[in-house]
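Readers of this paper often ask what the protein records in our data store actually look like. Nothing more is needed to write down the fold, since each code stands for a local backbone conformation. Below, we set out a record of this kind in full and without editing:
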Amino acid sequence: MKVINNISQLRECLAELRSKGQSIGFVPTMGALHEGHASLVRRSVKENDVTVVSIFLNPTQFNDPKDLERYPRTLEADCRLLEACGADIAFAPTVKEIYPEPDTRQFSYPPTDSVMEGAMRPGHFNGVCQIVSKLFSYVEPDRSYFGEKDYQQIAVIRRMAADLGIKSQIVPCPVVRQSDGLALSSRNTLLSEEERITAANIYRIMKESLTKNLSVQQTHDYVVNSINAIPGLEVQYFSIVDGDSLADVTSWDDAPSIVGCITVFCGEKPIRLIDHIRYK
């Protein structure tokens, strides 16, 4: 596996591979890789001739400097995992390489990027669009793989790709969970063992809500109240939305696809965890 740090070398390498008719799969990451990332890489390896994985902790999508500061950084371990999964290129640039000048571009795709994470983390999705659009321009992938744990992010990236005329196929991949249901996340490494056990209640309670035969509002209240009743957990939001537009729904008949998206603070620190569940 090649580890490339600059854009020009990446483009040169990929142009040569593309000239030979080889298909290119792409997995963008912020590092601190785990089995969830590995599942994306393995799928790309299976479906493409060449797989590129970016490892870049993007500062423009963090509205909280402390959150950026404590985000795990494990480049050497990340590269070992990628090589074991069969990735061909790890693209690990510096911040200066990606942002030699401030990126002043503004992206806006309401309501997709203005609700939930967009409302709680102002500027977050603008930063996501800045970096993903840059990476798409460098790699020009045939297919790009994203984990469904970041459900809203995929919806925003799809809107951005359509807006910018990006031809890469966006491939959503299922959430990878621990045996107790906790969604794998780089942030999980910041949890104590006791906090990890507590955090598993988030998905357990959302799954229970599937069986209750409640209205949308009753389902919302059940999930929020049940999670908040557990010491060490505090719901920031739980939104039940149209699975495509992410607009709120008030009835199960409002949309053909309905998803519940949640963010919960866990532990004393606290660590911010996101998850979702599909209702229909």
